[in-house]
Prior knowledge:
The chain is α/β, with parallel strands linked by helices. 41% of the residues lie in helices and 22% in strands. It has a 7-stranded mixed β-sheet, with helices on both faces. It has a two-stranded antiparallel ribbon with strand order 8-9. Helix 1 (20-33) packs parallel to helix 2 and helix 5 packs parallel to helix 7 (164-180).
Amino acid sequence: NRSPLQSIYVGGGTPSTLSAASIGILMQTIRQRWECSPDLEVALECNPEDITTSYLKALQDVGVTRLSLGGQSFQTEVLQRLQRNHSVAQLRDALMCLHDVRWQNYNLDLMFGIPQQTLTQFQSDVTEALRWEPTHLSLYALELPDTTPFGRDAEIVRWSNQTQTLCEEMYLWAVDTLTREAWTHYEVSNFARPSFAGRMNLCVWSGQEYLGIGVGAHSHVAGQRWGNVRALRRYQQSLAQ
């Protein structure tokens, strides 16, 4: 006896490389198989380089209600260090497109604790983000798992170990700044304008059930937690079986 879906989150990886028509087919298929709440939140992660006004309008037409934009920084050298595909100009263009179509609910991701990033640079990133008036901000510290290129780079790992105090200073400055600006700090990395907390974030944070579909997706159902295989070829083989 399944309760109606409250949230659909299309994220992890780069879902904005899909056409709006493909997203529409996905939404239609889910709705055919699952009862959905009348105020269902449909969130989609987007890369700045994929955003155009026509794409945003098409996403609105297929029922996407919330976007999460992987901006990371407004500093060219920081984006280059992160090996991002977008430029600062593309990030600002994407934010302008969101304003042009009057998108009501969107998150902007920023990162801190990046090699050679200064407190002043991070403060500048947060300050510019606020000027664009998003309804939600996610602030993520750089993590260095040893399975990633950064995690295997001895110089980057050494820099990270030596700058933990700086990372703490960045985070605490952001918490203080945003809470003074009346943002709700409702989860470790997440800040929202009143009534704009991400529904999927709330679900995971409060221990509710969620079903993950796709490569590497994680689930929490009936007290059990599991993750799907992370290799695309193995995942496809499993589906074929």
